[in-house]
Amino acid sequence: SNPVGFGQDLDEDELEKELEALEEEALEEKLVELPQPHDLPAVPTEEVVKPRPAKKVDEDDDMKELENWAL
Hints:
Blueprint: H1 12-33, H2 59-70
């Protein structure tokens, strides 16, 4: 007769690796089951054009005229 577990060398490192592999497989299965988003935001397909800076109104000329008047 052979007692249970007698003569069987169990390598704990090997068992840990096997457990990690099983846990990883279970996690991968859960991730595959996650629903994928259907509505994604629209992404421009063309190059985005930056707005040009507005031309300065003739404020500089008006300010110069006002400064000259004040002197």
